[in-house]
Amino acid sequence: MGIKFNGREIESLKANGLTIIEAVINDRVVWPEESDFHWQPNPDMVWAKSQWEALAQGRIGYLRMHYAKDLVNDFFYEEGTVVTSDGQTYHNSAAEGVEHIWDYSNSRVSEVHPTTKVVWTMYFPNNQGVYPATIEYGETYFCFDGVSADWYPCLWTDIAYFDLLNQASVFIDDSSVALYLGFFNECRKLQAVPKEFTMKLSAYRLQGIFGGCAALVSVPYLDMTNAIYGMGMFEGRTNLKELKLVNVNISIDLSPCINLTKSSLRNVLAGLTNRTGQDKLAIGLGAANIAKLSQSELSVALNKNWDVVETITNWPDYSEEE
């Protein structure tokens, strides 16, 4: 039995005295400030955030912090304004890409990984409806180590993966009547939706919200007060273990999520609204999940006028104009 933190087994741990630097959990490097763990920020993150706060001045945008050794040639493909830690600003009117040569001014030697330097990129999008996957896969780096050259996708750190500095407001505009589809679609590296993602989904159609999120393990909180259609919400999410939904007032199907914990299933049932006196809705749990629950636990849904079924086959018609 290894060390556990918040119920998760830590496979390896790096520390400086009593200060945790990083851990490996579920084969993934987790940094102290990651929202799902709330450890103390490491000094590199503190520095990068201070740079962000000085420059962003409340604007909605994204911060990427990078530990660099041999990063020289860089290409930015985002549509909008890109600012680099070595003082360059690029305005891209179309996603054609612009080359940047790093000179490492205003960088710092990492206190966590002393063989690297800490650099950052800030991105302020033209389109306020940018999707997370655009940020995750929007950049590619060209690196040369003196022997070989190669391209590789950038890895956004958890320091501001969903712009938590501005409460992810770039993604949800409460004044908009648009129906958002596939909000986290194709975020293939996403393992946990940040706990700070707590806004009520506005005029939100949830079909495909987690499409392509093959690594997704945890959705710790999702307020579905204003959700209007849930078909395909969890399709293919077999790795999902932790889930908490609140104010659920639409049919949802969790049958693909065969690895949900019992506590997660109980959380979901507790989050169903009471539909006594209204039309009955259905929640699909799948045979594997139903077997994890006692009859008294399943009755939580039944007593709220919900049907518990293995899977939902008949979904209501839905018009894009609604």
From TrEMBL:
<protein>
    <submittedName>
        <fullName>Uncharacterized protein</fullName>
    </submittedName>
</protein>
